[in-house]
Every structure is written in structure tokens, then in C-alpha cells.
Amino acid sequence: MPDLSHGDAIDTAAVNSLRSAVMRLSRRLKHQRVDESLSPTEMSVLGTLSMCSSATPGELARKEHVQPPSMTRIVALLEAKGLVRLEPHPDDRRQKVVTQTERAEAMLEESRRRRNAWLATLAEGLDEDEWAKLRAAAPVLEKLAHLS
After folding, report:
1. For residues 2 and 63, which has the higher predicted lDDT (pLDDT)?
2. Is the dihedral of CA 36, 41, 44, 48 positive or negative?
3. PROSITE patterns under this entry (predicted)?
4. Which of 131, 133, 127, 77 is nearest to 104 (CA)?
5. Domain spans of the chain?
């Protein structure tokens, strides 16, 4: 594990560069959305549901790092837009289970297709060495995205 706590100029510069690049790329990717009426948080919740198929609002709140009352509001908005449904929890009648609708699945698929096409177009501007480095970095960036 790298030691970044000593304020080493090279590590500080690398961390700063990584942060800046990831934020710029993220902002540009957000502009490739299919449905502009959804917030980035709403899209993220749909993406999480796509990966886990269903979850309680509390589980979604933990996964999305938001407070449970906020997730309750987000789920209500998504339900009103026809993108999720609430069903009774199989083991706990006090809870509900959130699942995405077919409409949400189709929207997410189109969003992924559009964003992938946009990134592929950008990647065409890279040389083979840059593309190989980016492919190698993808799993590391994925790991960073899921560390707490």
C-alpha cells in the first residue's frame, strides 16, 4: 500500500492530477445522459439496483452513502416516474423492497450505450500504449470507486 501521508511532492501531484482528471471526465460523462430529468443521484440508485436487482431503501441508502430519509424521497421520485416499484419484503412486513422497472432497465441500457460510444470515440485519440495503460488502470479505478 503506498504511503501518501508524508506530503511527498510527487505523490501529492499524482493524487491531485488523478482527482482532477476523474472529476473532469465524470462531469463530461454526466452530459451524455439519456434522461436529463433524472439527477445524478437518481441515476446512481438505478445503477445500483441494476447490479443488485433489488434492495430495501435502507440498503440503498448505505450503498449510495446517503441518509435513509433522503433515500426514501429518491425512491418516491423514481416510483412516481415509473422507474422503480415497491414490493412487500418477503421476510419483514414493515419493509419494502425496491426493484427497477423494465422502463428503467431500457433507459440504463441506452445510457450505458451512449456513454460507452462517447468514451470509445475519445479513446480513438489515444495511441496503443496509452490505451493499454488505460485498460490496465480500469480495474484499479474500479477498486478505488468501491473503497470506503
Report:
1. 63
2. negative
3. HTH_MARR_1, HTH_MARR_2
4. 77
5. 28-146
